[in-house]
Amino acid sequence: MTRILFVDDEIRILDGLRRMLWKHRDRWSMHFAAGPAAAVTALGQGPFDILITDMRMAEMDGATLLERAMVESPATVRIVLSGQTEAGASERAAGVAHRFLSKPCDPTELATTIELIETYRQLVPDRSIQAALGRMSTVPTLPSVYEALEQVLGDSPSLPIVSRLVRSDPGLTAGVLHLVSSSFFGRARESVNPDVALGSVGFGRLRSVVMGMRDVNATVVRDGGSALRLESERRHAQVTAAVARAIAPASVDVDSAWAAGLLHDVGKLLACICLPNGLGSTIAEARAADASPADLEAMRGGPTHASVGGYLLGLWGLRPDVVAAVVHHHEPMHAPPAYATLAATVHVADVLAHYVAASADGDGPLPALDDAAVVRIGGEAVLESGRRAAILASADGRRTASPSRPTQCA
Amino acid sequence: MRIRVPTGLRARLILLVIVPLLPALGLILVDVLAIRRTSMNRTEDELRHVAHLAATYHASRLDDTRQFLARLSEDPTLRDGDARTCSATLARVHATHPEYPNIGVVGADGTVECSATPVVGVVSLSREDRDRVVRRALDSGGFTLGDFTMGPVSRRPVILAGYPIVERDGSRRRAAVVSLDVEWIDRFAAGAFLAREATISIIARHGRIVARHPSVPAQIGTSVTTNSVYREIVRLGGNGVASGPGLDGVRRLYVSARIPGVEGVQLVVAGMPLAGLYGAADRALRWNLVLLSLVIAFSFVCAWWLGSVTIVDPLRQILGATKRIARGDLSARASVDRAGDEMARVAAAFDHMAGVIEQRSLDDAEAREALRRERDYVRHIIDVTPALVCGVLPDGTTSFVNPAVEATTGYPSSELIGTNWWRVCYPGEAYAQVKRLFEEFASGPVHDFEMDLTTASGTTRTVSWSSMNKLDADGRVEEFIGFGMDITERKRAERERDRFEVQLRQAQKLESIGQLAAGIAHEINTPTQYIGDNIRFLTDSFVTIEQVVRSVRRLTAAATSDEIAIATLRDVREGVDAEMLDYLVEEVPRALSQSLDGVERVSRIVRAMKDFSHPESEDHKPIDVNRAIETTLTVATNEWKFVADAVMDFDPSLPAVMGHPGELNQVLLNLVINAAHAIAEATQDATHGKGLIVVSTRRLGRFAEIRVSDTGTGIDDAFRDRVFDPFFTTKPVGKGTGQGLAICHAIVIERHRGQITFETELGVGTTFIVTIPLANSGDDAVEVAA
Q: Which of the four pLDDT bands, split at 50, 70 and 90, describes residue A5?
């Protein structure tokens, strides 16, 4: 049973939540802490799966509480439920909260969010991995990318330039989409297009949030240990995103296809730097053994890089279709039927990107192409257009390669 | 270029040394002259002596000759004898008297009848000799002496002497003639030990030279009258003295002596060369002159050297320094460093003087420079000052304007000075004001007399005039000095500021309302959240309640048949979730009351909001201060409730104040928010827990006093003076614009004629005190508006 801790210094809020969610008492073990002090005590007593807290409280504000939770109980999913309306309130919480909900919150939305989180948690049941991922507030990104962004934002930022930079990087895109998933941003959070997100967030806030991310990220990248090359992953992500958008069938949102393509291997990046054992070493082994990491993961059972990436993106509130496509990009036909086409699109794009990269660089293990997925998105015809898109995108990616040499994950 | 003055000075110095030596030169010359004169006198004496001796010797020879002839004439042989015997006798006699060149007998016709020396042919005496010697001897019967003549036989200069031979018959037909030569003169001269070049001459009648020692044959027989010296000697006769060049051109001193006993002037002239005569004197003179020259030369050198060292050089240095000073180089110095000497003292005095002059010149230059600077400075100030400066005579005529006047009026100074430009710049009715201004000028200084001035281009500038009267010695006003400030811009700025202030007040109000809006939204969102949750709960609950109702209905329906089937009861029991029902019985009333409570909270805030943002009207209304405070605290709840508790300590009987409700609320809101911020800052380290805001009211005479106290940080000394300054804030960027308290100040003081002050203590807190006049003290019947 999912253990949920609600924190608010207004007792009536807790009463209201308790009553409204009473009908879920069989599924969820709900606990209510009247104020941060009680919350800290409760966190100390037992592990919680989800922490939902108010922001403005007299003794300790919600962000501080979440920071403590991140340290003391990192596996717990952290959600803010705040009555504040100014978007600035989300800045402080951006680094520590997985989700940001605002009062008054539609009861359905709250329940849906909790249910989604339960689903995502099943992707990575291992609590130690959950804890490791819970400490992540950002996806690893090359410091040079942050520097370039900081420079662009410091000069006279224009949306096309900033957007191009953000869109070139899975970490930045994930960060921006995470930021905009806050319910402050209204309709913008429905979008997975970074341009829409950037328009809502604004450069000023982007700058402060992104720079905060950079500080965290800098240590992460420097201390990380894995054989994955961030730069090549980044290029692969770019190509996959471009191909996914190119081959997306009419029934699939092209923005979703692009975003899922860009973010599909976020799990590898995370595994590369934050997972103490298991996945990270599996991927490293796979590269050493010239085998597909996905195959090796599948052989070993347990969480795959796809599910790890999906887990974190899900917690960050990215749209479920994108999350599902990321999770299932190696076996698209296992995806929930609603998201299967998108997953198939990403799968084909991923494989095509690998093929094109292999024919260019001549190395790396190649994943297998799921024929059903090809059929799902329109048959053999898409392969050719996809390959062309891949070649174009990789050529474009080479031309606009990252400003500095690839950083090794040691 | 060498300067001439020192040379002249040196020349004078040298003269000074040499002039004293000149008497020595005189002495030398006098001495020489004396020597010369002595020598001359002595020589003259010698020559006279020699001449005299020679003359006497000659005379004695003539005397001898007379006696000889007298004896000879009586010799019978001569008287009677024939020519041969006569000649024999004469030859015999001649042998004993060789001193006579010849002895003869001459007839009256001059024919030589016989002679001691044989004569070839017939020899006659010259007619002159015959007449002079023979005839006169025959006529006188005595001794006669002829002139020197050239011997007809010997061809030597001779003197013929004759004596008549008395014939037996006593007649005298012949004469014995003897010739005398002057050969003796050489012997005489040798015996006289004459000096070289000395001469002895015998000058006969008619000035002819008959003999000369040393012998110069060419001169013999010539006349000396061509020579001025001899002419003078001859003129003087015997015993004459003269000097000058002789016939041979040698300058000599000549002395003559008359040969006694002869007829006519016949002289012996002795001459001594002047050169020999002055030789010694000239040698002495030369020697003395050489010595003197040496002395002078030595003196010259000494004078030159000493003059240079002691006088000329220092003088030259002084002169050089003087010239340099004259050229303007006041730092020039003579720098003569010899101690103790007058020249050095002069130079030192000069240097001192130059130093003093230089210092004075420097001082003067400094003073002049300072004066010039000061003048320029003042001039510059007048020229560049934006103030209009003008001088006005009592009749209104302008005597001076500065560039600012030209710039402001647009007229050039030439059109302003000398005219009454006030009439131009203040035309029409405005001039009446000017006249009033002039009247005020007369009564003393004027301050800030504002008038609109019309410029050349027709625009209007507002100028504020002040004036100073310049009085003459009698205390009458001589001139007004007017100072005008162009305050057009200031006036415009003031108007702008007034307008800006209104806008600012409005903006600040919007700012605080905007700030409030977020807080109010939060305050509304919270109850809305639980109201919504509760309603969802109630909605969900209604399913259960419906079941219960349905069950009750079934039971009710069953009850009408007087028997209740067990089955029905079982159905009812199974259909009703007892646990749920218990929960509902417990929760529903609380959910309802909390929802109502929430609704009340929302409506209270909305109401306060409406009260707070009072419908705008410029009218002043009576205001219930206590209620205004309550409203404000409610509206601002979200601003303070997380950091502080609020305590209201009201005077319930406080009468209304007169004011603008919206503005007063703005003041209260600003004070409350400031208090909350101060407390937030003080408690941010969370060691003090929540702070306290106390808002109290009380009546203070005709005023209502509102005190807003906080337990915040207090205000730093450094900032206390600036608390009410616009745009002054200690809050971080984005947290405040610095307008709040400035607006409060403006609203309370200008709009409500109240006062706003504060008491503060660092680390303890701040109390702002607002006092506002009561609407109508003592009249409680005023209708109160919130």
A: very high
Per-residue DSSP letters for A212-267?
Answer: HHHHHHHHHHHH---S-BHHHHHHHHHHHHHHHHHH--TTS-HHHHHHHHHHTTHH
- At B673-732, the pLDDT tens digits run 888 888 888 877 555 678 899 999 999 888 999 999 998 888 888 888 878 877 777 776
Pairing of strands B657-659, B621-623: antiparallel
Nearest CA in chain A to B528: A104
**Rounded Cα–Cα distance for residues B666 and B726 (Å):** 16
Q: H or E segment at B315?
A: helix B313-326
When pLDDT is cut at 50, 70 and 90, the band that residue A201 belongs to is: confident
Bond preceding residue B214 cis, omega within 30 of 0: yes
- Range list of H helices, B97-164: 127-129, 136-140
The rounded Cα A202 to chain-centroid distance in angstroms is 21
Question: What pTM, to 2 d.p., does this model score?
Answer: 0.56
Which residue of B516, B522, B535, B545 to mutate against A (max A Cβ within 10 Å)? B522
Q: Does B690 contact A at CB distance below 8 Å? A: yes
Mutate to test the interface with A, among B530, B593, B637 (most CBs of A within 10 A): B530
User: By the 8 A CB rule, do A343 and A202 touch?
Assistant: no
Ranges assigned E (strand) in B65-116: 102-107, 112-115
Q: Is B587 on the interface with A (CB under 8 A)?
A: yes
Q: Do B526 and A102 touch (CB under 8 A)?
A: no
Tokens of A175: 């960060």
CA B190, CA A293: separation in Å to the nearest integer?
175
CB-CB contact of A207 with A175 (8 Å):
no
Assess whether pLDDT exceeds 80 at residue A252. Answer: yes
Strands of A39-147 (E only): list them. Answer: 50-53, 77-82, 99-102
* CA–CA separation, A238 and B12 (whole Å): 116
Angle at B117 between CA B116 and CA B119, to 5 degrees: 120
pLDDT digits (tens, 9 = 90+) for B434-479: 777 777 767 767 777 777 888 888 888 888 888 788 888 887 778 8
Q: Does B581 reach chain A within 8 Å, measured CB to CB? A: no
- Torsion over CA of A55, A56, A60 and A61, rounded to 10 degrees? 40
> If contacts are CB pairs under 8 Å, which of residues 650-689 in chain B contact chain A?
686
Q: What residues have CB less than 8 Å from A289, skipping those under 6 apart?
A: A296
